[in-house]
Amino acid sequence: MSDPRPNYITPAGYSALKAEYDRLFGTERPALVDTIAWAAGNGDRSENGDYIYGRKRLREIDRRLGFLARRMKAAKVVDPAAQTDRTRVWFGASVTIADEDDNHRALTLVGDDEADASQGRIGWNAPLARALRGAAVGDLRRVMLPAGEKEFEVMGIEYRD
């Protein structure tokens, strides 16, 4: 069963998925197949570390390639620079929010496949991103976080070109 939500992704995020796919399929996998073939030719495979590790790594690469192929097929590339309503928080928006203690945070709403909290990029379907969708500057939004419910005020919205 497929996920009914669209897999929104920025052009840069899609390029990163495609680059990883191309690297795995075009470089790592062929080199690994060569290593496995060489190791298989060395005789007893039951105690051949190169062969055993190579087969295990090949399964991991094939699983990752399948995952990447499914995600790219389901991807709906959305360019934040093309957003017409720049007064509200939508996909690709860079948002500055403040909590009850006036702590400011800058976040960018990106596709779930390109989320990286340490870089301030949160996935489109994350609880905080869902709470911020459609908000304008000055709006207050409540969100349930692991640490409990918090209220945030939208301080600024920007769409980078």
TrEMBL record:
UniProt keywords, alphabetically: DNA-binding, Elongation factor, Protein biosynthesis, Transcription, Transcription regulation
Organism name: Sphingomonas turrisvirgatae
Gene: greB
Top-rank taxon: Bacteria
Transcription elongation factor GreA/GreB C-terminal domain residues: 87-159
GO terms, molecular function: DNA binding; RNA polymerase binding; translation elongation factor activity
Limits of the Transcription elongation factor GreA/GreB N-terminal domain: 7-77
Gene Ontology biological process terms, A to Z: DNA-templated transcription elongation; regulation of DNA-templated transcription elongation
Function summary: Necessary for efficient RNA polymerase transcription elongation past template-encoded arresting sites. The arresting sites in DNA have the property of trapping a certain fraction of elongating RNA polymerases that pass through, resulting in locked ternary complexes. Cleavage of the nascent transcript by cleavage factors such as GreA or GreB allows the resumption of elongation from the new 3'terminus. GreB releases sequences of up to 9 nucleotides in length.
Stretches that traverse the bilayer: none
Name by which UniProt lists this protein: Transcription elongation factor GreB
Family the entry assigns: Belongs to the GreA/GreB family. GreB subfamily.
This protein's record includes keyword NADP: no
InterPro entries referenced in this protein's UniProt entry, alphabetically: GreA/GreB_C_sf, Tscrpt_elong_fac_GreA/B, Tscrpt_elong_fac_GreA/B_C, Tscrpt_elong_fac_GreA/B_fam, Tscrpt_elong_fac_GreA/B_N, Tscrpt_elong_fac_GreA/B_N_sf, Tscrpt_elong_fac_GreB
Pfam family, one: GreA_GreB
